Amino acid sequence: MSNLFQKPLFTYVVMLFFIVLGTGVLLIPFTDNYLALAIVLTIEYIIFLNMISYFSRILIKPVEKAIDTMEEIQKGNYGVRLQNGPTMVGTLNTKINGLASHLNQLATKKNLRLEQLNTLVNNTESSLILIDERGFIQLINTKFINMFGGKAENYLSQLYYDVLENEACIKAVQKAFVSENSIKESFTHYIGIKKLYYEISGIPIFNDQNNLKGAVLVIRDITDLKKLESMRKDFVANVSHELRTPITSMKGFAETLLDGGMSNEETTREFLRIIYNESHRMQLLIEDLLTLSRLENENFRLVLNTINVKDITQDIIPTFMYHAEAKKLTLHVDIEENVVFKADKERVKQIFINLIDNAINYTPENGHIYLKVEKQEEYVHINVSDTGIGIDKEKIPRIFERFYRVDKARSRNTGGTGLGLAIIKHIVEVHEGEIEIESEVNKGTSMHVYLPL
Known about the structure:
GO terms for molecular function: ATP binding; phosphoprotein phosphatase activity; phosphorelay sensor kinase activity. Residues 57-108 form the HAMP domain. By secondary structure, the protein is α+β, with helices and mostly antiparallel strands. The protein has helices at 9-27, 34-74, 88-123, 142-148, 160-163, 167-179, 223-258, 265-296, 309-326, 345-361, 408-413, 420-430, and strands at residues 127-132, 137-140, 183-191, 194-206, 212-221, 304-308, 330-335, 340-344, 368-376, 379-386, 434-440, 444-452. A five-stranded antiparallel sheet has the order 2-1-5-4-3, sandwiched between helices. Strands 7-9-10-12-11 form a five-stranded mixed sheet, covered by helices on one side.
């Protein structure tokens, strides 16, 4: 019965005492036996105290536990449970347990969805910022932090114009709010000396009543796209230039012949020779462009066969020996016996042709060219070296670019298209091989190609 002296039961115990005492005062005029009256009132008081204690255990205590449990649930602790029973309080406990279980399931689903949303938002390739209708930032993803620096807590719950340093971002938000339409713009951003290109989209958010509730900023890195666009423009410009030059030459000489130049047989033959050479140059250029196009096609497949290097070189070496001798060059050939590997024979032959042809074109008279093929662990090593004009170290990273020429005048005079090394690089890459270059100006160049066995 110790619980009777605790709140709130103690208040009822005191009230009951005064009620019994008042009853005794009222009954005194009707009896002379005060001792008997005191005993009866005391027994009555004790009986009522036991009744209060009993009902406290049966009703009040479980209700208090139920209230405490509801407070825990209200705080978000959905794992608490009450003891079930056959009474009405037990039924109440069962209902509360069911509610807690249901809320626990809803909270689990909510947390799972939030986790999935956070994973999606933080792993997207674009930066995301969510701004409410008052201008406060409510969400920001990891990509934005990587792009612009800082920490998430520096942005969240802050006014966008106070924390966003990039003027393009601020203007995009303002335009989205003012126009209530989606906007898309691009801007440049510098990280140190590195120049990056970003595309920003401002998208207003509306509720079911079509009231503006905020805006989302999506920022995408388009630096690679800009580079590709620049490469495309350069490629088109280079192709146009490479085709325009021979066409202009052919047209000029043809017009001269048509205007009466055919009266001189020697002049006619010279002009026709020039027209033939220029048309042959155009044919080579178109063939190289088609080769590059096929190699870069995602559906391109190598025709793999087991090939012997000797079978390839014996077809092309005699021709290059003749060209080398015509330029007063010496071609040295050192090919290891039984170098057999799996590759596309025609593509590998093209590697040999382009490498040796470049060496002959860029090596002056009385120079030397060396072709060496050998096995090295898991690779076939193809090495073509020369004692030619060499390449400046600053220009080496660019030699595999389309139409790039170390010596433009020499390349055009020899009929080069400027695509040979680009083709070699693509062939090596589709074979999952490697290509390396060593060069020194006025001393020569050494090209190394490694193809897997």
